[in-house]
Amino acid sequence: HTVRRQSIKRGEPRQMPSLPHTAESTVREEHFSSRRKQLEDYLTKILKMPMYRNYHGTMEFIGVSQLSFIHDLGPKGIEGFIMKRSGGHRIPGLNCCGQGRVCYRWSKRWLVVKDSFLLYMKPDSGAIAFVLLVDKEFNIKIGQKETETKYGLQIDNLSRSLILKCNSYRHAQWWRQGIDEFIRKHGKDFLTEHRFGSYAAVQENTLAKCLVSRAVEYEDECQCFDLQTTYAVFFPLLYFLRLSPEIFMKRPVVEGNRWRLDCILKRKA
């Protein structure tokens, strides 16, 4: 605390703000607006103090993480701690005991909802443990009958059934409604099948389309698709478009890495 006090910049608030002393049950209805303003001021002052703003309990209460406001990841959905059940992958060979409960383990994870995917992170390290894509089979179920778990929540897509355990039925309903409304609003293009069976909607007049067309023309001029063409054209193109070479061009992922972009380019080369 001595080091923290010495490191605080002048002009920064140093004193912990106080909450109203009056109990909620004794507040009259006409005083609700002023009471709300007091709580807003309290939270604002807390967030102006770096020591409390960066405290994990504060971030959990507000529902934010290190991924919340990264523009390239899309708009912010709801976030929070959940208990996640192991298994649920729909890829043959990954489940050691099939549907047997002997394999199930429960782990505490931080769940993040975005427009085209959900992910969960390990709370101790912040490492992303799994990404669940929004696709045409995306669906949410709730209840013990559907999930075989008390206060359970099941999120399905083409490649996995993710089982979550909540504190109460109301908590599970809050997650279900929050995820469903957010995805329906921001990720509706991924919920239906598009031209040529694609998971993504057609985007007209994009810079990417022009660059890919030029790359194809370059390939035709060379009359071959050799390793030199790959390095000279396609890898700089991927860098310019900020595309990961590890992105899967065909979903769901049921054939190993065959349809991963770098593997496709390697086969072509």
From TrEMBL:
Stretches the record annotates as Disordered: 1-30
InterPro entries: PH-like_dom_sf, PH_domain, PX_dom, PX_dom_sf
Lineage: Eukaryota, Metazoa, Chordata, Craniata, Vertebrata
MF terms in GO: phosphatidylinositol binding
Signal peptide range in chain numbering: none
Domain PH: 75-184
Name of protein: PLD1 Phospholipase
